[in-house]
């Protein structure tokens, strides 16, 4: 036993000395009597504690920025819904600057929010009657049918132009067009306000002539607010089926083509033969659907008036639409679609002032534009989901905020119109959204142009591939 203990002393003592020497060499020339482990453990714990505090502060900042972004998106959604536009041009700067999302994530989140807000608006217009509409839906499905195919085609053309045009030209065209549209829309709002003031004066004079008695709403001339069906909820299912077919056909083509980064469900080479065949196939689809819709519309016009489900108030709107050339709405939709794809914004902000300039009443314009935006925005949203979008739960929260805010905004504007009798409030809402969009997106574009200029990037026209 004693021999064994002597053996351990002779073996362990050199090993212990070697281990201590190795630790001293690795830690520096310090006395062996100092507590090396404790001396280095405390700074590590301090650094870890500081990192955790910084992480908690960053999470708190992110939560605070998210709450502020929710509040601003709520306000933007309520205002956009009241004007009948999607609001994507307002969501993008909020998501990018306030919420701190990158531009690609902001675009995908915006598609969710526009879809949710448009769905809320459409459901409100279908299931809740307007006070001045006599119980009818304000959505004009005929305008939607004539506009949707050419608008989707125009967006595809505009996207190709966006790849070819320099950033400075896109920014300049956007600022010029939207500033001009804002001015014209605001002028139309003031004209509408003057006409409504004259109507109010005539109503007051008529009330005084009747000895101060209240004038029945049915006895007053109501602005052109019709466009739907009478006697409860009656959806034109045939028109809706055609719209869904248009949506599905263009959706399949877009999914096959993929996004701007070339990511799709198939491995189609960008700018290859198959790519351009699929892209060009959108033209016969749009022309075919539009031709069928125009033929069906012409056939309905030839029917006796008694067979058409139009009441007295709807005749004024239908007469105004029928007085226009048949290709006005497809042409306007193609034009606004090209501009929407070129500027990278939704078509609602562009087609709304166009319809107002054509002469469509404001409430019908707002409801119909929202219905059109629902189809185009939902196509982008579903495409993002299929192609593997990240952050769907967070995007769903923003979409829920937009859904609730849109319903509240629309209810408020309906009450304001009912109380004041001024439909021009919608026109002023559209003007305000357009003015804010002009400032925000023009500033974004100017920043990109300046970045390209300072970095010496190429600023001329580019090939599409």
UniProtKB/TrEMBL annotation:
Domain of life: Eukaryota
Protein name: Sulfite exporter TauE/SafE family protein 5-like
Membrane spanning stretches: 67-95, 107-127, 155-179, 240-257, 273-295, 327-351, 363-386, 395-413, 425-450
GO cellular component labels: Cul4A-RING E3 ubiquitin ligase complex; membrane
UniProt entry tagged with the keyword Membrane: yes
Record organism: Phoenix dactylifera (Date palm)
Signal peptide residues on this chain, from the entry's feature table: 1-26
Mode of membrane association: Multi-pass membrane protein
InterPro entries hit by this protein: TM_pro_TauE-like
Family of this protein: Belongs to the 4-toluene sulfonate uptake permease (TSUP) (TC 2.A.102) family.
Subcellular location: Membrane
Main location: membrane
BP GO terms, sorted: protein ubiquitination
């Amino acid at each position: 036993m004693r021999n064994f203990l002597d053996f351990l002393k002779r073996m362990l003592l050199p090993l212990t000395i070697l281990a201590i020497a190795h630790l001293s060499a690795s830690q520096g020339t310090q006395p062996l009597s100092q507590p090396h482990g404790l001396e280095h453990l405390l700074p590590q714990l301090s650094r870890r504690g500081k990192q955790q505090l910084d992480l908690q502060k960053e999470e708190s900042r992110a939560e605070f920025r998210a709450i502020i972004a929710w509040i601003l998106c709520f306000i933007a959604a309520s205002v956009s819904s009241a004007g009948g536009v999607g609001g994507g041009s307002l969501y993008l700067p909020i998501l990018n600057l306030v919420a701190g999302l990158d531009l690609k994530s902001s675009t995908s989140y915006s598609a969710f929010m526009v879809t949710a807000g448009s769905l809320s608006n459409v459901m409100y217009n279908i299931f809740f009657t307007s006070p001045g509409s006599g119980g009818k839906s304000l959505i004009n499905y005929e305008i939607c049918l004539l506009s949707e195919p050419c608008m989707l085609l125009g967006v595809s053309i505009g996207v190709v132009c966006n790849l070819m045009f320099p950033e400075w030209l896109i920014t300049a065209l956007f600022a010029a067009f939207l500033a001009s549209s804002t001015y014209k829309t605001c002028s139309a709002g003031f004209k509408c306000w003057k006409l409504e003031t004259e109507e109010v004066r005539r109503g007051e004079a008529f009330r005084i002539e009747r000895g101060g008695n209240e004038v029945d709403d049915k006895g007053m001339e109501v602005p052109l607010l019709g466009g739907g069906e009478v006697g409860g909820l009656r959806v034109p299912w045939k028109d809706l089926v055609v719209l869904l077919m248009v949506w599905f056909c263009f959706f399949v083509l877009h999914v096959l083509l993929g996004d701007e980064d070339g990511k799709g469900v198939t491995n189609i080479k960008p700018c290859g033969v198959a790519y351009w065949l699929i892209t060009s196939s959108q033209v016969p689809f749009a022309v075919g659907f539009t031709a069928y819709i125009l033929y069906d519309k012409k056939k309905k016009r030839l029917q006796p008036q008694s067979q058409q489900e139009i009441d007295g108030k709807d005749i004024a709107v239908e007469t105004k639409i029928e007085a226009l050339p048949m290709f006005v709405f497809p042409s306007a939709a193609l034009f606004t679609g090209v501009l929407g794809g070129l500027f990278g914004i939704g078509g609602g902000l562009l087609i709304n002032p166009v319809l107002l300039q054509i002469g469509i009443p404001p409430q019908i314009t707002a409801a119909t534009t929202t219905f059109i935006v629902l189809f185009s925005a939902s196509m982008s949203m579903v495409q993002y989901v299929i192609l593997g979008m990240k952050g769907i739960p967070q995007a769903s929260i923003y979409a829920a905020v937009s859904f609730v805010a849109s319903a509240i905004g629309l209810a408020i504007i309906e009450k304001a119109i009912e109380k004041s009798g001024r439909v021009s409030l919608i026109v002023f809402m559209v003007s305000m959204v357009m003015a804010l969009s002009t400032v925000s997106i023009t500033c974004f574009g100017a920043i990109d142009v300046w970045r390209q200029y300072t970095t010496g990037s190429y600023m001329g026209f580019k090939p599409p591939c």
